[in-house]
Structure formats: structure tokens, C-alpha cells
Prior knowledge:
Blueprint: H1 9-15, E1 19-23, H2 36-46, H3 53-70, E2 77-80, E3 98-101, E4 113-119, H4 124-144, E5 152-157, E6 161-168, E7 171-175, E8 179-180, H5 184-199
Parallel strand pairs: 1-7, 4-5
Antiparallel strand pairs: 2-3, 3-4, 5-6, 6-7, 6-8
Helix pairs in contact: 1-4, 2-3
Amino acid sequence: MGYSNYKNLRQTLKKLALEEIDTFLFPTINLVQPSEWLLQTLSIAERLPITNEKGKSERIIAPILSEVALQYESQITLFSGEDLPVDADKDLSGPCDFFFAKHPKKQVMQAPIITLVEAKDEDFEYGQAQCIAQMYGSQRFNQEEGKDIPYIYGCAVTGGEWKFLRLEGSHIYIDNKNYYLAELPKILGIFHQIIQSYLY
Length: 200
């Protein structure tokens, strides 16, 4: 089961020896307007039944992340469903819904991983717990590949609601604010801000 075994936030923090810090991760956000393509894609998604995590991932989350990725395609790659095997004995293994890696387009995922996005149906705590485990696994992966970075961002998503996190060393910063699909320019702005923090 790997990362999906991390279902409870308190237990995840204890098992991975992480300290939780609640904060406002993005006190200022530069709004980024969605393209007509993205607006049309999300409009079509609203007209179709979305009954599970796979549907939300494909019709809502993937288009949003793809639009962001295309803005930085010479510097980052967006992966979906790739396995991140780090330590199976500690449940740090298994597929991740989405993540950005800091390298141009490649067929094989390489370090450093900079941001993960985990989709969950409605259980937000489960989504945060699993996302934190994947962020921790990414931290380990980057270190083992000799490409350690100061921090890794994560995002737990129910489709309509987005919660951002940042892992620095043994501290996990959890944003006090949740963002909603109706605030799409803010969500896009946050992802642009995250990616630009690694590039400049």
C-alpha cells in the first residue's frame, strides 16, 4: 500500500518525526488568469459526472497543472502516476498523483522533485497525510540522488478545495488558508510563485 497507508495527520507527523507549523504560506499572491483553453476544459468538466478521484484528477487537476507546466516547459516536467520508491519498509513507496521535477522534459523522472499534488475524494486529512508522506519521500529521494533542495511544496486537493504545504528539514508548514476552484487565478498564481522560487 505504501504512501496510501498514511491516512492520519497526527500519526504521520509522529511516524516521520516532523513538527507541524501552521502559517500563512502565501501572504501575497499575484493573480494569474487562466487561458481560454483551461476555462473551456473546466466548463466541460462541470457538465460531466465526476464521481471519484480519478475523474477529478483527469478533468480538473491535470488541466490546471498542465497549464502551469507549459509555462515552464524548458525548466520543469510534470509527471502523473509515477512510482516513487524510497523505503518500502517504512511505507515510503508507491505512485504519486502528480509532481513537478526541476528538469526539462524527460521520459524518466529525475531529481530534484520540487512539488507534489495529491488528489483525494473528500477526506482532506487523508489527503494531507499522504501528501506529507510523499513530500518526505521526495526529500529522501532528492538527498539520495545528491540533489537536495531547501524545501518541497505539496498540495492536497479534493478537486474543489486546495490545501498547500511546505516541508523544510523536519518542519512541515501547513497553510492556514484553503483555496477553492472559484479562486482559480489565486491557485494558478500560487503554483507560479512556487515554481519561480526554485528557478530564480
